[in-house]
Amino acid sequence: MIVGVLGLGRIGATHAANLASLPGVEVVVYDPDATAVERAVAATAARALPDRDAVLGEVEAVVIATPTADHPEDLAAAAAAGLPMLCEKPISLDVASTAGALRVVEQAGVELQVGFMRRFDAGFVEMRRLVESGALGGVYLVRAASHDNVPPHESYLDQSGSVYRDMHIHDFDAVRWLTGRDVVEVYAAGSVLVDDMFRRHNDVDMTALVLVLDGGVLASITGARAHPLGYDHRTEVIGSRDAVCAGWTERTPLRSADPTGIRGAVDPYPAFPDRFGPAYRAEVEAFVALVRGESGNRSPGHAALEALRVAVAADHSLAEHRPVPVSDVS
User: Among candidates 65, 67, 123, 63, which has minimal Cα distance to 275?
Assistant: First the structure.
C-alpha cells in the first residue's frame, strides 16, 4: 500500500515515520518546505514528490497534516481523487467550512478519519471500555487537565484559532467519546498570565471550563499554555462504582505536597509526541486497517464538527462571560 503524507511539520513528520515503520506500507511525501522534506526522507526513506497532485495521483490513501487553513481544499482534492484520508484536527477553524468539507467527503463516498489521537491512547481506550461495559456504573463527572510545558511560538497563534479550537478540541472530543453523551452547554473563563502575546491574538494562556452534558453529567477542564514541570495531559472519569484516570504515570509532571505522597516524575513528559507517541502510532495503524477494509472508522469526520461546535461555544462564553448552549452554534 502506498500512503501519501501532505505536510511535514512536527505531526506530519511523526505520521510519516510511523507509517514507514508499518509492514507493507510505502510512504510518499510533499511539503513546500524543502528542508522539511529532506528531514523526512532521511528519517523514513520516504519518497518525495513535487506537489500535492503528484502525491494524490500515486497513492491509495493520504494523510493531511498541512496547515489548518489548507485542510478544506486538500480534503476536496483527495475526495475528488477517491482517496480515503486521515486529516489532522481541526478540519477548519469555522463551523460552516467544516460542514462544507464533510459534505464534499460524504458525496465522494470516501472514508475520513480525523486526528483525535486520544481515541487510540491505551488509557483512554480502557476508560471507554469501562464506561461502555458498565464497570464504572453511572458516569457522574469527567475531569481533564491539558497543560503544555512551554507556550507555542507567536507565529503559531496566527493560525491556531484559539486555545479552545486548537488544544481543547481534543478534550471536547474525548469527553463526548468517553461518555457517549453530547455537550449541551459550555462556560469558559480565561486569563493571560504567561505571555502577553496571547492577548495580542485575542486568546488566553490559562483557562477553566465547565461542560454540561446531556443527562446532567458534568465535565471540568483546565488548560495551561505553560507548566513548570513538563507536559501534563490527564483525564479522569468518575462513576458510581469506580473512578479511573488516563495519563497518570511515573512520567506525569506533578508532585504531591503530602509528606508520604508521590515525589514527582524523574523523567517528565516534555511535549505531546512523548506523552501520546504510542497513540499516534496506533492511530495510523487503525487508518491503514480502515483503508484495507479490516476495521471500521474509529474517529469519523462528524466528530470534528461536533468538537468544533463546543470550541466555538467556549469562545463565545469567554467573550460574553456567560454559559453558552452548544445548540446556539449552527
Answer: 123
Strand order in the sheet with 26-30: 47-48, 26-30, 2-6, 61-64, 85-87, 112-114
Tell me how far CA of residue 56 lies from CA of 59, 60, 74, 197, in angstroms.
6, 8, 10, 38
One domain for residues 175 and 100 = no
The model's pLDDT over 264-311, given as tens digits with 9 standing for 90+, comes to 788 999 999 999 999 999 999 999 999 999 999 999 999 999 999 999
Rounded to a whole number of angstroms, the distance between the first and last alpha carbons of the chain is 39
Q: Report pLDDT digits (tens) over 157-168.
A: 988 899 999 999
> How many domains, the chain?
2
Domain assignment present for 289: no
Grid cell, residue 10, equals 512536527
Query: Per-residue pLDDT tens for 93-119?
Result: 999 999 999 999 999 999 999 999 999
| pTM for the predicted model, two decimal places | 0.96
Cβ neighbours of residue 328 closer than 8 Å, sequence gap 6 or more: 313, 316
Co-location of 63 and 137 in the same domain: no
DSSP H helices, 186-249, are: 197-200
Are 158 and 240 in the same domain? yes
Length of the chain: 330
At 306, list the grid cell. 461536533
